[in-house]
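Renewal narrative, Specific Aim 1. Our central claim is that a sequence can be written position by position from structural information alone. The example that follows is taken directly from our test logs and has not been curated for this report. It begins with the structure tokens describing the chain, in the order in which they were read.
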């Protein structure tokens, strides 16, 4: 199941429900509503198919689910753990790009990024750009100058 990060989906009650019923939760990256739009579209499609089933009684849900899985095209752009990227971050709802390193890949589209400043965040692949900028190494002498 793909959902946004609303408290109804991240709370203990719903998380336990998913765990008990074999539902694997995935959350969209903050600031990338297109992922949620795709989830909403799939829900609408399933609802329409269920309405059809109500009238025809011949439609099989499992065949619809199998077809939708086959239609997913492989992603051409892929990033690897350890690669340097610029990640889109939002400060006061304004987008900025900050340098970081990919620490973990979550499925086909989402990544955990560690920014050079030390903060970790989750981002969609469309919020990332591969860069050749090396992480600046701060020496002991430089750190004394800045403090």
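The sequence written for that structure reads:
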């Amino acid at each position: 199941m793909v959902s946004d990060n609303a408290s109804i989906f991240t709370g203990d009650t719903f998380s336990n429900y998913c765990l008990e019923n074999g539902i694997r939760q995935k959350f969209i990256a903050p600031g990338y509503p297109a992922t949620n739009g795709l989830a909403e579209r799939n829900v609408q499609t399933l609802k329409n198919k269920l309405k059809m089933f109500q009238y025809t009684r011949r439609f099989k849900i499992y065949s619809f689910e199998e077809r939708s899985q086959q239609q997913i095209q492989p992603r051409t752009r892929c990033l690897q753990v350890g690669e340097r990227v610029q990640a889109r971050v939002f400060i006061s709802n304004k987008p900025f790009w900050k340098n970081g390193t990919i620490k973990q890949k979550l499925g086909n589209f989402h990544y955990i990024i560690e920014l050079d400043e030390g903060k970790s965040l989750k981002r969609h692949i469309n919020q990332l750009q591969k860069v050749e900028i090396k992480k600046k190494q701060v020496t002991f002498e430089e750190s004394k100058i800045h403090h």
